């Protein structure tokens, strides 16, 4: 288990608890009461730390190396029913964007999302979760297939942004993302978006238009990352904490601004602290929202979705 700077008090208490239990096992000393006291203090410390997180600390949690990624969610939610589909039928198969058919119970879904890597080799293979234009075109091809066969779409967003390389621009990165946004507004099937990690810039928006947009508690969603914002405004990354506060990028901020529909609560310590509980919660949220959306006709779905996005940013003085 890896710990962030602000999680170090938790690490110390967990180490104390481990040592206490080892002493109890290896000697005749009764350490039950001591262990209980440490456990109580650990619970209180964990609660205090995660109750008062700053915007920057939530950004750090969204990038936690132990945090589950898109394929972790899909495998936990769908099990053996997931069938990955590849390629955009134009350039190649983008490994940073994955998609395919899977089931929750008896209901089929088209799952699409950015995938990050777990170590140096897989991070390079997945291009750090930064999709090229062919990734967005693959996502659109799968969405159109889902529409054709009347299968609801679930998008899992977790990206530091679309890939900004020259080759991506040559192949039309901006056009691919803009096309996805346009086409997603008028898909005739339910679209549920869940932000499971980083939701940065157009890279997130390229698969981020939905009837219901949900954010896990310790994620962020913004036009720019705090580091990039800091480097533009102050010519340095040192002001990233200040930038994170100013950007209003947390789930709470997004809900207040009516840019998302719901915040999904995470277990104490973040999604990585209790993966099975996180997966179960996300699965239930997807199913319950689909139940509501299935009551609408395709025309009502599209009209409601377009109205929702048309009203964003409208200010009544």
Helical coverage, percent range:
40-55%
Give the N-to-C terminal Cα separation. 50 Å
Radius of gyration: 21 Å
How many helical elements? 14
Count every beta strand, where a strand is a DSSP E run of 2 or more residues: 8
Description:
This protein is of the alpha/beta class. It is 49% helix and 15% strand. It is built from 14 helices and 8 strands. The chain has helices spanning 8-26, 32-51, 55-62, 70-78, 120-125, 133-148, 166-170, 173-185, 201-205, 226-234, 240-247, 251-256, 275-293, 298-310, and strands at 83-84, 97-104, 107-114, 153-159, 191-200, 212-216, 220-222, 262-264. Helix 3 (55-62) crosses helix 11 (240-247), helix 6 runs parallel beside helix 8 and helix 10 (226-234) packs across helix 11 (240-247). The N and C termini lie far apart (50 Å).
List keywords for this structure.
alpha/beta; eight-stranded mixed sheet; single chain
């Amino acid at each position: 288990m890896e710990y962030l700077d602000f999680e170090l008090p938790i690490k110390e208490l967990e180490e104390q608890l481990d040592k206490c239990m080892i002493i109890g096992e290896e000697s005749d000393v009764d350490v039950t009461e001591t262990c209980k006291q440490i456990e109580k203090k650990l619970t209180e410390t964990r609660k205090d730390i995660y109750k008062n997180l700053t915007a920057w600390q939530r950004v750090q949690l969204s990038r936690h190396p132990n945090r589950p990624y898109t394929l972790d969610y899909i495998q936990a939610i769908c099990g053996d029913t997931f069938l990955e589909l590849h390629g955009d039928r134009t350039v190649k198969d983008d490994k940073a964007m994955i998609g395919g058919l899977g089931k929750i119970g008896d209901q089929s879904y088209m799952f699409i999302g950015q995938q990050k890597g777990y170590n140096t080799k897989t991070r390079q293979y997945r291009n750090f979760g930064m999709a090229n234009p062919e990734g967005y075109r693959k996502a659109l091809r799968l969405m159109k297939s889902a529409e054709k066969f009347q299968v609801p779409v679930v998008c899992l967003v977790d990206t530091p942004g679309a890939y900004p390389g020259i080759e991506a621009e040559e192949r039309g990165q901006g056009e691919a993302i803009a096309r996805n946004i346009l086409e997603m507004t008028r898909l005739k099937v339910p679209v549920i978006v869940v932000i499971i990690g980083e939701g940065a810039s157009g890279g997130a928006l390229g698969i981020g238009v939905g009837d219901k947009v949900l954010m896990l508690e310790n994620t962020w969603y913004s036009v720019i990352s705090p580091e990039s914002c800091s480097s533009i405004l102050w010519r340095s990354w040192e002001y990233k904490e200040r930038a994170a506060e100013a950007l209003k990028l947390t789930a709470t901020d997004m809900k207040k601004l009516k840019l998302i529909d719901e915040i999904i609560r995470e277990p104490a310590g973040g999604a990585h602290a209790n993966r099975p509980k996180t997966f179960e919660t996300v699965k239930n949220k997807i199913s319950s929202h689909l139940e509501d959306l299935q009551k609408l006709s395709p025309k009502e779905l599209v009209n409601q979705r377009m109205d929702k996005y048309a009203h964003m940013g409208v200010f009544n003085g």
